[in-house]
Amino acid sequence: MRKTLETLMDVITRPASAFKVISQTRPVGRAVLLVVVIAVVNALAQPRFTLGDLLPLELRSGSEFGDVAAMSFGGPSIASAIASPIFWLVALAICAGIYHVLALLFKGQGSYAGLFAAFAFAALPFIFSAPLAVFPVVLGLAGWGLYAIGELALLAWAGVLYFYAIRENYAFSSGRAMAV
Which end of the chain, N or C, is surrounded by fewer C-beta atoms within 10 Å? Predict the structure, then answer.
């Protein structure tokens, strides 16, 4: 457990060296566990969206929009907590496979297992999606805007980490990693 926490801190503070170690040691079991935790936390923390969130306050209750405004989407459920980790792991395996093939075409020297583990650790920023889910609940429509901005920032951060994962796993230059 301590090793995993140290690795997570290194991914945040020293991503290049962290991904070099991850690519060499290939901690696939810890990587799978991390993805499962991230997926379950996100599945249980997702805010529920209703069409009424888009209406002004005075039209939300007792209006002609009634049933339509009450329709809701998303939100936490046991089914999503079970399905989400499966989806994340399958998507991660497919993405790692596609990037592995591309990296091999660019004469990369890394392994699929190293890239899979590195991609799993590169998903770390998405654990912070859970706290962002508070914004829509507390602030309504404005909260959805903050939630979207926060998610875009996390996506950008994860994109940078995926770049480091590819670069370090295949011992690429920055330019070659970017091309992949």
Answer: N
Rounded Cα gap, residues 131 and 153, in angstroms: 14
Distance, CA of 67 to CA of 179 (rounded, Å): 50
Q: Which two tokens stand for residue 79?
A: 């089914």
In tens, the pLDDT along 104-150 reads: 999 999 999 999 999 999 999 999 998 898 888 788 778 889 999 99
Cβ-contact 83, 146 below 8 angstroms: no
Torsion of CA 50, 84, 15, 28, to 10 degrees: 180
The helix (H) or strand (E) run that includes residue 72 is strand 72-74
Query: CA–CA separation, 178 vs 175, rounded Å?
Result: 5
